[in-house]
Amino acid sequence: MTPAEATPGMIINTDAYAIMMKADGNVKKELGLVQVYTGNGKGKTTASLGLAMRALGNGLSVVMIQFMKPDQGAGEYVMAKKLKDFTLIPCGLPHLVDPKNITKEDRKAARDALIKVKELLYSKKYDLFIIDEINVAMGWKLVDVNEVIEILKGRPSNVEVILTGRYAPDEIIEFADLVTEMRMIKHPYEKGVGPRKGIES
Questions:
Q1: Is residue 165 part of a domain?
Q2: pLDDT of 69-95, one tens digit each?
Q3: pLDDT-derived band of residue 9, with 50, 70 and 90 as boundaries?
Q4: 3-state SS record for the chain
């Protein structure tokens, strides 16, 4: 019986359920595609986090490496520390990257993040590998698109990869198996509504 099937007051052995939910070979052997979430609309990182929850629910291990984002104390950072098999690694500096004034520190942080991506992607520890905002890093020439593609080509089989962020290069779109473009139609910031805790952060 799963927790969802339990009736009010019923006691469920959640440890036993967690063991039962560990992904078997049949689940993992279907993995191995590259997905891209791009576009100017809200929801790219959010969509990848939703997929992370689905993967965790099926017993898969998940890692998210974030380019250009420091640990901001957002909801996903808090939850990552509580969820087994979900690792979140922010690799950004405390300041926002200005694409018109990219510094040596910005380039080094992006370079270090890419090194971390390769290290963990090749470690065979993770089934779902989310590389958040890497499309922006490639679009702003912080990292080389061809190097990213070569890293992806050399990864172990049966690792599903998600690349998020605006400005996905044409080479990435061509290389990927699935590409979704989020397009902004309306956004509350047009009415002066800023980021809200629990929704945007």
A1: yes
A2: 998 778 899 999 999 999 999 999 999
A3: low
A4: CCHHHCCCCCCCCHHHHHHHCCCCHHHHCCCCCEEEEECCCCCHHHHHHHHHHHHHHCCCCEEEEECCCCCCCCHHHHHHCCCCCEEEEECCCCCCCCCCCCCHHHHHHHHHHHHHHHHHHCCCCCCEEEEECHHHHHHCCCCCHHHHHHHHHCCCCCCEEEEECCCCCHHHHHHCCEEEECCCCCCHHHHCCCCCCCCCC
How many domains does the structure of the chain reveal? 1
pLDDT digits (tens, 9 = 90+) for 92-124: 999 999 999 999 999 999 999 999 999 999 999
Asked whether residue 198 is domain-assigned, the answer is no
176: containing domain: 34-191
- What CATH number is given to the structural domain containing 39? 3.40.50.300
In a domain, 28, yes or no: no
In a domain, 89, yes or no: yes
Tokens of 109: 């942080």
- Its pTM stands at 0.85
Q: Model confidence at 13, in pLDDT bands (50, 70, 90)?
A: low
